[in-house]
Amino acid sequence: MPTEVYAYQNSIAENQDIFWQYGNHCLIVTGKNSAKESGALDDVIAALEQGKITYDIFDQVEQNPHVSTCFSGGKSANNCNADFIVGIGGGSALDAAKAVAVFAANPDHLDKNFIFGNDWEFQALPLILVGTTAGTGSEVTPYSILINDDGQKQSIKGSDTYAEVAFGDPRYTQTMQYQTTVSTALDAICHSIESYFSTSCDTFSEMYSLECLRLCIPALQSIATKITPTLETRQDLYNASIYGGLAINISGTALCHGMGYPLSETKRIPHGLATAIFLPEFIRYSVPLAPDKAKAMFDVIGMSEKEFADFVYSLIHIKLGETTPQERQQWVHRCHDSINAKRCLGEITKEKMLDISRVVLKMFA
Ligand code: NAP
Ligand code: FE
Predict the structure, then answer these.
(1) Closest alpha carbon to 188 in 167, 213, 222
(2) Sign of CA dihedral 221, 225, 230, 231
(3) Which of 200, 184, 360 lies closest to 281, judged by CA?
(4) Can you give the pTM of this predicted structure?
């Protein structure tokens, strides 16, 4: 992983000179509010101004960003002659910043969809990312998950979509609402566990997965009490999200992400919740295929499989509403044909996936 990570209180103020190394002008890419609300934007601007680096701001990134939004961001970067891109926000803004950096470096393409080919001519502009949620790990991954013209989530990835530098500060995540904190923490847990039971899991990704869980589970238990989280708890969640990102860099995501994407696309369920509703059933499927690994994992989690499933379900309060059998078939069909399904242990059948979707849809109808 080529990204340098600074993730502690005042990390930006203490490393301002890093912002002065990539050129004279940057485009800051954010969502509508969180960059300002979290205090991260002010810290970035202070660092830039200290080094006499000028900037423009593109604050149009929506949750689950569309490729068109990123294409517009690329044009803004070209219009202001940006030398580098700074993304500030949750996974949506950070993923969008990666795509903006690619579009900005490749302005001659009239069709934005070239980006999904993962083979662009010129290297993306240098990228600095500042995380304000604690879950996606996007700060340290090369992935950018964009909504394509068919309304489906599609991932891009290049050796140049890693950030040069990533900053985190637990103070930035304090302004997250309870539901966003829970959803993003569950995303990190899904990264960890899907990667742990992935066919591509190796010694290192296994270590990252277990470290993610060791930090994240007690922190999430404390969040669930609804007592205002301490900065230590926030730091643990943030660090856990980085470990989750490192794990998926090696072994990728599996069934929960594959099945969860359509719920964010069509029902606007936040990403972490949309994936985590499949987690207990994914674990139930995987445990018999790797019983020793499963035991080691539940030792770290400090709960039995049943207790952990109950804990995960207790954190998710969503209603999926009516879904037609055709809709379910479509989700399963798409996931079954994807790399996410291929990463599941054993050979997961469409019937098994339909069973899982039935259990989950019944529970959250
Ligand atoms: P998000 O979509 O970035 O943000 C969710 C909401 O929380 C937004 O309204 C955002 O506001 C707000 N928010 C963010 N930080 C906040 C803060 N500190 N205080 C108050 N509000 C805050 O959520 P996310 O779960 O972090 O990211 C989800 C996206 O990441 C999905 O598109 C998913 O596919 C992607 N993802 C990427 C990877 C990867 O490896 N690249 C991995 C997993 C998921 P604003 O809109 O104002 O910013
Ligand atoms: Fe995720």
Answers:
(1) 213
(2) positive
(3) 360
(4) 0.96
In sequence order, the β-bridge partners of residue 5 are 166
d(CA 132, CA 12) in angstroms, rounded, equals 13
Which ligand 1 atom lies nearest to the CA of residue 261?
Answer: 34
Residues 141, 178 contacting (CB under 8 angstroms):
no
Sheet holding 25-31, edge to edge: 4-7, 165-168, 127-131, 84-89, 25-31, 54-61
Nearest CA to ligand 1 atom 12: 34
Place of tokens 């900065």: 231
Tell me phi and psi for residue 12, to 5 degrees: -75, -50
> Which residue stretches of the chain are H helix?
34-37, 40-50, 67-79, 91-105, 178-196, 203-224, 231-251, 255-267, 271-276, 279-286, 291-301, 305-314, 325-336, 339-342, 350-363
The residue count of the chain comes to 365
The set of protein residues with a Cβ atom below 6 angstroms from ligand 1 is 31-34, 37-38, 63-64, 89-93, 95, 132-133, 135-138, 141, 143-145, 153, 172-173, 175-176, 180, 184, 187, 271-272
Helix H or strand E segment including 4: strand 4-7
Q: Which amino acid is at 11?
A: S
* pLDDT one-digit tens code per residue, 269-308: 999 999 999 999 999 999 999 999 999 999 999 999 999 9
Residue 39 burial (10 A CB sphere; 0-12, 13-18, 19+): middle
Residue 337 makes CB contacts below 8 A (sequence gap 6+) with none
Contact 268, 198 (CB under 8 A): no
Residues 6+ apart with CB under 8 A from 365: 319, 320, 321, 322
pLDDT digits (tens, 9 = 90+) for 90-133: 999 999 999 999 999 999 998 999 999 999 999 999 999 999 99
Nearest CA owner, ligand 1 atom 32: 64
